[in-house]
Amino acid sequence: QAEIRNLTILEANIADNRYTGIKPQQVNSFEIGYRSLFEGRRLIDISYYRSSFDNFIGIVRFVKPRTSPQVDLLASAQQMNNSSQSDLFFLYANASDRVVAQGLEFTYDVTSRDDFLFIFNFTWAQISKASNDPIIPAFNTPRFKYNISFGHRRITPNVGFKISWRLRDKFMWESAF
Q: Helices H, strands E: what count in the chain?
């Protein structure tokens, strides 16, 4: 299976270059939300967004074997899996398909009459792109994030405290570095 994947990459390198320039990225966004304060101490905030990107700017990876595919196709394909026998290049380019990012955030914030506070926050974010598009979106945002905080605004006139617990869903960090 690795050889097939390498040959696919190799064929992309031999094929005509479709990366001849870059166009400006365009985004259309829609957002809706609700925020309300109850009893002067309870805040509820919820919002949803959906952003649609045309000409999304991302990064394409190119692997260049040290042996030309025109000289020895098999050696060239084997070198593509070996970083000491190939060079890696990154090129900014536009995605060929529309890229859509969407998310939802919910916050509940309560302050008691004794100035104790409790805050809960939940965030969901997702990006979708065509699976055949070689652009690396580098969204770099976990799908789920949770925050819970507890504290007191004024233990004394100049001292307060806040303890927070944060949980992030695992995600793949993508970068050209």
A: 2, 8
